[in-house]
Amino acid sequence: MRWYKTPYAAVVWTVLRVWLGLQWIEAGYNKLTGGFDATGFLKGAMAAATGEHPAVQAWYADFLQQFAMPNVGIFNTLIPWGEMLVGLGLIVGLATIPALIAGAFMNLNFMLAGTTSTNPILYTAAMILLFAGAGAYYFGLDRYAVPFIKGYFKKAHVNEVKTQ
Asked: Helical H runs in 34-118?
């Protein structure tokens, strides 16, 4: 067994995973209770794509202008609820890998939009936990859910082969 998948390492991964989950819950909660509207953020990101040293790449500003701005209402719902769901999944250790991927994807998009803040730290934590693999959810609900789901699909596959 690799050292980063041992129960001892899993204690560290669990602390990191729960901390990361709390960061996402706090961000999502603040947006849900604070009347979040991404319009100003998107306009600021598009403005940061100009000048001698743009903080936002032109291709990403085009994406924001052509796709995100016309659909800002959808983003106003998806972002806070996505942050809440990522946080919840990480705290309880359920759907940990999808939650880490979704969180990293949001961090990447926030960074591409020119916002540094805590995004590089959160992105790095997600990458470390993805590297840890099953060790990241050793102390979480996925420890039981993943084998159950694998067994369910394996049994379904075996039954499918028998009927053919």
From this structure: 39-47, 58-63, 72-92, 96-112
pLDDT tens per residue, range 94-125: 999 999 999 999 999 999 999 999 999 999 99
CA dist., res. 45 & res. 31, Å (int): 18
8 A C-beta contact, residue 78 and residue 124: no
42 neighbors 74 (Cβ within 8 angstroms): no
Dihedrals φ, ψ of 2, to 5°?
Answer: -65, 145
Q: Tell whether the torsion through CA atoms of 81, 84, 90 and 91 is positive or negative.
A: negative
Measure the CA–CA gap between 148 and 154, rounded to whole angstroms.
10
- Over residues 17-76, the pLDDT tens digits come to 999 999 999 999 999 999 999 999 999 999 999 999 999 999 999 999 999 999 999 999
Give the three-state DSSP class for 146: helix
